[in-house]
Design goal:
binds nicotinamide-adenine-dinucleotide, Aldehyde_DH_dom, alpha/beta, 15 helices, seven-stranded mixed β-sheet
Length: 496
């Protein structure tokens, strides 16, 4: 167990100055990994002031220098990748193979991508849009960004928030979820060791209503960037609106997984199991609703259940473990509650739907679960589960498939499985989601944006599109005539 500080303010790791203590645990075993005190409003203010001060120099640091520091940062993270993966795995209850093969390499690639992107901020070319002026576009950083992150991919979420902000010349104060601060602090510490100046990246750990609210309502924050649930996102947006602050919201998801009757059934079944169970289903893009065209339906349900039963639950540090625990017993209660209500409403649990016993009983494990016969308007089909649960429903026509896919409040991600190019094109055009995969579900890549439609939020993480969130566009219009009396002055006065 470590009792070192779980905050990083102005280049130093330290404890919070409030008297409220919190502990960080491994949800797969209950082991306490760290204990610390929460950030107070004074700590948040100190972090914001440090970020304000750092902004004056960081925003003027030439992009090539920002890039060099970020590349050194990526190298340091690479050297520490085993330690980062072990910490991410134990704090998140996720299998070590996922942390090693997805979380950590994904973040290192993101750092390298944004290091290069720092030198490539784009805008419209300068030109004479009026015969008497040259117009130029300046893309400028905003100032101090206040960011709030969730617990499902702590390191990746910290990276998605911090990287585009600092690559564009902003400074940042990030509040990770209280359950999972460990790797966010390690990430910020490595940035400082790589030469990113003190105050550019600050981490304050605390509750949403405490440190989180103090951060987003701080008058010196130029922008709020939030990833989390739609319910909290609404509150965050209200607070930001009250102060006319820019806001970027990455919220919940309820991804449809549409299998047409010309799809490769085995590929689709495997894709559904991987897409539903990744990170124990605690993934905002996880496949949660499989709609399968009737001729394939029974075989699909049968094969998915067979594959789910083969998934190996186990200790998260065992390289052979496929699926770990949920993030907390509270989250497991939420998942189990939704499954029980679905069962009580007449849905059938084909596999799973129970808490594993034996050695896994001390962790927040939940068995991979497949549900059928749930009505489209039921809670389990409409609301986010955030657990290892897939619901499967049949459909008859293509029109019906598109309608059902769009029939929830969310619009973060979706997939369509087909060998017909016209069906694939139609699904990618008509499904309202920020990402539509064709014959796959889950992969992400640094160069491409991630973000929602509808109640899944607005704005983009990753890719150079994210710079639109973290920069202001300024128009500079310069007279090129040198005339004292401009032609348009006639509109206002005519005297010579
Ligand atoms: P959550 O909304 O409960 O909490 C997210 C963060 O907000 C935490 O750091 C929390 O402390 C903070 N918070 C809570 N109340 C706050 C308030 N009043 N003011 C300021 N901050 C506050 O979400 P969670 O349970 O941590 O994470 C799961 C959710 O995140 C799911 O809904 C999931 O879909 C979503 N998510 C979305 C994306 C995406 O890219 N769209 C990615 C990952 C997770």
């Amino acid at each position: 167990m470590t009792s070192t500080g779980q905050h990083f303010i102005n280049g130093k790791r330290r404890s919070g100055s409030s008297e409220e203590r919190f502990s960080v645990t491994n949800p797969a075993t209950g082991e306490v990994l760290a204990v610390d005190t929460r950030a107070s409003a004074d700590d948040v203010d100190e972090a914001v002031q440090a970020a304000r001060k750092a902004f004056t120099t960081w925003s003027r640091t030439p992009p090539a220098e920002r890039c060099d520091a970020m590349l050194r940062w990526a190298d340091l993270l690479q050297q520490r990748s085993d330690e980062l993966a072990a910490t991410e795995s134990s704090n998140g209850g996720k299998p070590i193979k996922l942390a090693r093969g997805f979380d950590v390499p994904g973040v290192i690639d993101n750092v390298r991508f944004f290091a290069g992107a720092a030198r490539n901020l784009e805008g419209k070319s300068s030109g004479e849009y009026s015969p008497e002026h040259t117009s130029t576009i300046r893309r400028e950083p905003l100032g101090v960004v206040g960011s709030i992150a969730p617990w499902n991919y702590p390191l990746q979420m910290a990276a998605w928030k911090i990287l585009p902000a600092v690559a564009a010349g902003n400074t940042i104060v990030l509040k990770p979820a209280e359950l999972t601060p460990l790797t966010s602090v390690m990430f910020a510490e490595a940035a400082q060791e790589a030469g990113i100046p003190d105050g550019v990246i600050n981490i304050v750990t605390g509750s949403g209503r405490g440190a989180g609210h103090a951060l987003i309502s701080h008058p010196n924050i130029a922008m709020v960037s939030f990833t989390g649930s739609t319910a909290v996102g609404r509150e965050v947006a209200k607070t930001a609106a009250g102060q006319v602050k820019r806001v970027h919201l990455e919220l919940g998801g309820k991804a449809p997984f549409v299998v047409f009757d010309d799809a490769d059934l085995e590929a689709a079944a495997r894709g559904a199991v991987a897409g539903a169970l990744i990170n124990s289903g605690q993934d905002c893009t996880a496949a949660t609703r499989a709609y399968v065209q009737r001729p394939h339906y029974e075989a699909f349900v049968h094969r998915v259940a067979e594959l789910m039963t083969d998934v190996r639950l186990g200790p998260v540090d065992d390289p052979d473990t496929d699926m770990g625990s949920l993030i907390s017993f509270r989250q497991r209660e939420h998942v189990a509650g939704m499954v029980e209500r679905a069962r009580a409403g007449g849905a059938k649990v084909v596999c799973g739907g129970y808490l594993p016993d034996g050695p896994l009983a001390r962790g927040a494990y939940y068995a991979p679960t497949l549900i059928i016969d749930a009505p489209q308007d039921s809670e389990i089909v409409q609301q986010e589960i955030f657990g290892p649960v897939l619901v499967c429903l049949p459909f008859d026509t293509d029109d019906e498939a598109i309608r059902l896919a769009n029939d929830t409040p969310y619009g973060l991600a979706a997939s369509a499985w087909t060998s017909n190019v016209f069906r694939a094109q139609r699904a990618s055009r008509e499904i309202q989601a920020g990402c539509v995969w064709i014959n796959d579900h889950i992969p992400i890549i640094s160069e491409m944006p991630h973000g929602g439609y509808k109640a899944s939020g607005f704005g983009k993480d990753m890719s150079t599109y994210s710079f639109d969130e973290y920069t202001n566009i300024k128009h500079v219009m310069s007279d090129i005539t040198g005339d004292q009396r401009k032609s348009w002055h006639n509109l206002v006065f005519t005297s010579r």
